[in-house]
Amino acid sequence: GKNIYFTPVKQSFLFMQPRSGIVFHGTADPWAETQDIREGCEKLGLPLYITEGTNHSMETGDCLKDLQIMQEIM
User: Fold this and answer.
1) pTM for the model
2) 51: which residues sit within 8 A by CB, 6+ positions away?
3) Nearest to 25 by CA among 1, 4, 3
4) Where are the chain's structural domains?
5) Which of 19, 24, 33, 36 could form a disulfide with 10 if both were Cys (CB 3.0 to 4.6 A apart)?
6) CA distances from 11 to 16, 20, 37 (A)
7) E strand segments, the chain
8) Adjacency order of strands within the sheet including 48-51
């Protein structure tokens, strides 16, 4: 089966298998640098979906925008 990796941190990549799913990341995530996530995904062949300005919960602080983002992801 495939996995959905929702806002992983750098250390998560130590436990992921190559080509095992997809990754979602927000560029304002204080727990994970976007470049680290890009590199981890590239190394493991994982598609990466980046959402600009969202935090570790994929939220921006704007409720309507957050709902739209969740609709796009789901």
Assistant:
1) 0.92
2) 24, 25, 26, 27, 58, 69, 73
3) 4
4) 3-73
5) 36
6) 10, 16, 10
7) 3-6, 21-26, 48-51
8) 3-6, 21-26, 48-51
